[in-house]
Prior knowledge:
The protein has 21 helices and 6 strands. With 608 residues, it is mainly alpha-helical.
Amino acid sequence: MxxxxxxxxxxxxxxxxxxxxxxxxxxxIARATATAGGALTVVSAFLAWTWTPAxxxxxxxxxxxxxxxxxxxxxxxxxxxxxLASYGIKGTRWLVPAGADSAIKLSALAxxxxxxYTIIAISAQLGGLINLExxxxxxxxxxxxxxxxxxxxxxxxPHLLPADPEDTGWDQFKHxxxxxxxxVKAxxxxxPITQARKLPGYVEILIITAVLALGLTVxxxxxxxxxxELFLGxxxxxGFGFAALAKAGLIARVSVLTARHRNVAMIGAFVAAxxxxxxxxxxxxxxxxxxxxxxxxxALGLNIVVGLAGxxxxxxxxxxxxxxxxxxxxxxxxxxxxxxxxxxxAAILVGASVSMIFGVxxxxxxxxxxxxYLAIVTLGFGEIFRITVLNLDGTSGPDVTNxxxxxxxxxxxxxxxxxxxxxxTIGGFTIGRFANYFFLMLLVTxxxxxxxxxxxxxxxxxxxxxxxxxxxxxxAMGINGFRVKLVAFALGATxxxxxxxxxxxxxxxVTPEQYQFAHVVPPNSxxxxxxxxxxGMGTISGPLVGGALLFLIPNKLQFLGDYQLFAFGVALVxxxxxxxxxxxxxxxxxxxxxxxxxxxxxLTKAGA
Length: 608
C-alpha cells in the first residue's frame, strides 16, 4: 500500500525592514527641515558674524561673505541642493543617481562642523560668545536645524542581534556599541547607482571641463588659504563635501564620463594644472605647487612597484636621491667633483639611467624575496644610500658627494634661450622662477602618467597584476616572475630618477638629509608609500591626489608644532579604518574590501 502525504502550502510572510531616522521626526518634516535649514545657512553667510575685524577674514560685513563664511555657504548650498533633488525636482535628479538622503546628511555635517568650529574659534580668540553678532547666532541655529532634519531622514535599519545576558558587562557594552555603529553606518548607506541616459558627446566633454575647472578652483583655494582657521575649515568642508558627492553617486557618474573620454580628461587635467600659475599673483604658492608635482610624480612611480606589481618598497626615496645626485654632478655645479656641464636633456637622462642601473643592481639579488623580507631589504638599501653619500666627503671616503654639505649652487636651467631662473611675462601674467619649473615638472609628470598608463594596459602590466594577486598561480601559468618584477623595479626607479633630476635644479642643493625613510617634511619613503595607499593603489589619479594632500597638509599644519605628526597620523589611521581602499580606489581593490557589495555586471577597463 502506498501512502501519500500532502504538505500544506505554508504562506511566506515577508517582513519589511523598519525605516526610521536617527532622530524621531516625521519623514516629510525632516526633509523640509533639512532643506530649509540649508537655505537659511546660505542666507546667514551674508550676515555679519562678529563685530570686530580682529578675527581673521573680517566677518563684519553684511551682504558679502568672507573667509569661513564662504565655506559654510557651500555646505548650506549643497544641503539645500540635495534636499531639492530628494523631492524629484526636474533638473536636479541627475545629481543624485545613488539617492539624496546620505548626501544631505554629510553636507549638513559639513555646514554644521565648519559653522560651529567658527563660533568656537571666535569665542576662543576674541574672549567669549558675547563677540558674536546676530548673524553668527542665525548661522549656528540654521546649521543645527539642518543637521537635525538630515539625521531624522528615514533609512532601512539593519537587523541587530541582542546581547547575550550571560556575557560580562564589558562584553555587553561592546556588543551594544557595535550595534549602534552598525546603525550609524546604515544611516549613511546609499542605494545602487541608477544609469543615466547617454548624453551627447559635446555635453559630456563640457561636464568634464566644468569638473576640472572646479577641481582647479578648490586646489587653488586650499593652497592659498592665508591663516590656520581658514585651512582647518577648508579641510572640514572639503572632506564632508567630497563624501557627500560620493554618496550621491555623482563622483561615480563623472568617473564614467572620464572613462568614456579618457584622452580628453587627461589633456584637460593637465591644461587645468598648467593654468594654476596664472591664478597666482606671486611665486609663493608656485613653490608649493612644484614640490607637490615632484612628490606626486615620485609617488606615481612607486605605484608601479607597489600598486601594480605588489612589491613593498620602503627605500624608494633613495632612487629619487640617486637621480638628483647624478644630475647635480653633471650640471656644472661648483661643488661637484666633476667639471662637467651637460645640457638639461642629457643631465635628466643621466639621472634616469643611473637610477635605473641602481634599481637593477638592487633588484636582481633581492627580488626573489617576498613580503616582509623584501621590505626589510629595500629599507636597508634606502639607509645605505643615505649613509654612503654622507661618507663620500673626502675624509671618510673618496670625495664624490661632498658629504653632509651636499652639492650646492646648482645652476638654473637654460633651454632654447629660456632662462628658468628669470622672471618672464606671458600674456600679461608674471611668471616667476618656481612657476617656470612648475611647467617643466608638469611635462615630466605627463611623461610619467603616459608611461604608467601604457605599461599598466600592456601585457607586462597584466603580468604585474597577476604577480600581485597570486605569485604562485602566476608562476604556474608560465609568467617569469623574477623578470617581470625586475622590470617593475627598474621602471619605477627610472621614473623616480627623472623627478630627482628636476628636483636638484628646483632646490639648488641636494643633501643626504633630504632622502630619509621618515621625516616631518616630504618627500621620504614613508610619506611616498602613504601617498600611494591613501590615494588608491593601482590607479593614476590616486597617488597624484594622495601626494598633493600629503605634501600640502603638513605644510599647512606647521602651527601645530610638535603635535603635527600626531594629528597627521590620527587622520591617516581614521582614513585607513573607514576607507582602506583609498580615496580614488581601483574598482577591483574596492570590491576586495567590500565583498558584500554587488559587483558590476560588466567590469570595464576603466573599472578595472
